Amino acid sequence: xxxxxxxxxxxxxxxxxxxxxxxxxxxxxxxxxxxxxxxxxxxxxxxxxxxxxxxxxxxxxxxxxxxxxxxxxxxxxxxxxxxxxxxxxxxxxxxxxxxxxxxxxxxxxxxxxxxxxxxxxxxxxxxxxxxxxxxxxxxxxxxxxxxxxxxxxxxxxxxxxxxxxxxxxxxxxxxxxxxxxxxxxxxxxxxxxxxxxxxxxxxxxxxxxxxxxxxxxxxxxxxxxxxxxxxxxxxxxxxxxxxxxxxxxxxxxxxxxxxxxxxxxxxxxxxxxxxxxxxxxxxxxxxxxxxxxxxxxxxxxxxxxxxxxxxxxxxxxxxxxxxxxxxxxxxxxxxxxxxxxxxxxxxxxxxxxxxxxxxxxxxxxxxxxxxxxxxxxxxxxxxxxxxxxxxxxxx
Length: 395
Ligand code: AMP
Known about the structure:
Elements (H helix, E strand, L loop, with lengths): L4 E7 L4 E7 L7 E6 L7 E6 L2 E6 L5 H15 L6 E6 L10 E2 L2 H10 L6 H15 L5 E5 L9 H4 L5 H7 L8 H15 L7 E7 L3 E7 L2 E5 L22 H9 L3 H10 L2 H6 L5 H9 L3 H21 L8 E5 H6 L1 H9 L10 H6 L6 E2 L8 E3 L4 H14 L1
Helix pairs in contact: 1-3, 2-3, 10-11, 11-13
The structure holds adenosine monophosphate.
GO molecular function: acetate kinase activity; ATP binding; magnesium ion binding
Pathway: Metabolic intermediate biosynthesis; acetyl-CoA biosynthesis; acetyl-CoA from acetate: step 1/2
InterPro entries: Ac/propionate_kinase, Aliphatic_acid_kin_short-chain, Aliphatic_acid_kinase_CS, ATPase_NBD
């Protein structure tokens, strides 16, 4: 049987990230981004082989962008596309694994939208457009939350009145599940261990950041909660703050909920602390030049990350390794070494040269022999979504 092709789609409210995944090749034959959808600046950009190209789509929406993508996908896949995998952020408690898109599944994604008001409606726009443009193709939804549905109740419940959970779904869900699942499996392969009999701490550090405790291939705890704001310091998100901060700002400054929401999600994190940038690369460069805000932002980021990893140690029976992934985790020896320096209690120690070597897609072990394993594992959410899609097509 020839290697199969899956188109992976990740829709935002005005964007679509896409990748054509061929099961036999690690490189994507085609990938790109449609952005500013719905505005006069709407544009489709793609890369095929080494070549980049773009097409303006003034006022084009999700459907217009996908329609333009169709011939590109046909060209890059040799004419045969076997299915479409959609990244959907929130699957609530209903979805514990990927699902073939049926009217019932689509209705359930719509019903869960109050838990992810920015993300699920955007995914549904892409799903509607893809179903109308590719009606003959099997399509699958892969949920960011699904991997964390194995959390025990003591890890997912908040200590708030039970009715908020029972009637309104207020609990911890966790996100980045596709990445945590992919890299924990890869880590087990790299270490020569069975994923079903191994325990990992995973730090996914990109613009959004989260940690996860993975035991025997299942998520047992994670740092994000009801929304992707809980937990670590991120690019523009605060992560954990005192929950009374909301009331305090409302009372003392008269801020509205919208203002507080914006501050915590868009103006905080690395950007808020540094007063400079949400981008770790820029902050590392500024730190080199002695910028005090950038230096502090990196210190807080690493300390809070180490604290989260140490806390998640409670969920592990033993530690087979710590995994770094995501744009920062895969590329920042500085963040890795500063974080591990706070984890001496776990007996972690990094090999300086190995740590420096693992950047720009190079993964591997970076610990000092005789100390617990620390791995850099490049994530590949698109590939995991394609694999999940293929598995469902075979079922
Ligand atoms: P992601 O969301 O996974 O694409 O990750 C984005 C984050 O990775 C941004 O904060 C980037 O600054 C960071 N990043 C990418 N390359 C590097 C690098 N070479 N050094 C430090 N941070 C990096």
